[in-house]
Design a protein that fits this description.
By secondary structure, chain A is mostly beta strands. In chain A, about 0% of the residues lie in helices and about 55% in strands. Chain A contains no helices and eleven strands. The chains are: A mainly beta, B mainly beta.
Chain lengths: ~120, ~120
Amino acid sequence: GAVVSQHPSWVICKSGTSVKIECRSLDFQATTMFWYRQFPKQSLMLMATSNEGSKATYEQGVEKDKFLINHASLTLSTLTVTSAHPEDSSFYICSARRKGLDEQYFGPGTRLTVT
Amino acid sequence: QQQVKQSPQSLIVQKGGIPIINCAYENTAFDYFPWYQQFPGKGPALLIAIRPDVSEKKEGRFTISFNKSAKQFSLHIMDSQPGDSATYFCAATSVNAGGTSYGKLTFGQGTILTVHP
């Protein structure tokens, strides 16, 4: 149990286009989902926290108009990178927290490359 | 105050050895301390976690030792295997305090573990 999926696993897009990444909790309800960004050989950097049915809370320095987060249901959150630029190229990972429990489970990540 | 400091940055052991990774925190509001294992190109996988009301927790070959007064915790991997070679992250969060920090993980810098055959 406690499986989190992400789609797509990798994506290449052209500068100026938008990309949507989906995060799903497959076998549990997630009241809260988190979005992270990870650069090579570095730790995870929290971008935003998303709660089902409410607006996401962004970390300081993260542009909310550029990284749009929607948490439409207890099993689905999406991250849309708008007007992507090469500096947005990174590994994006979501995590989901089980309803009523402490544990957070991570998705497999999405590798975004902007050309 | 939100930082979690992890050491060492990298660690090399022989098969069967017991690597130990250490973490220290400042924020006394932290009350949940998980460890994650990450392989290249993959998302982190939850290994084991501890709450501050116990000093040690063991799951399989993985053991967390927790020292509340020193605000330190560590991961021990017994009988390490080459398949354990990965990056390990400690993390900390507050799960009971509520508010905007509720459940947000603060990660350590990571430790790259290499287990030689």
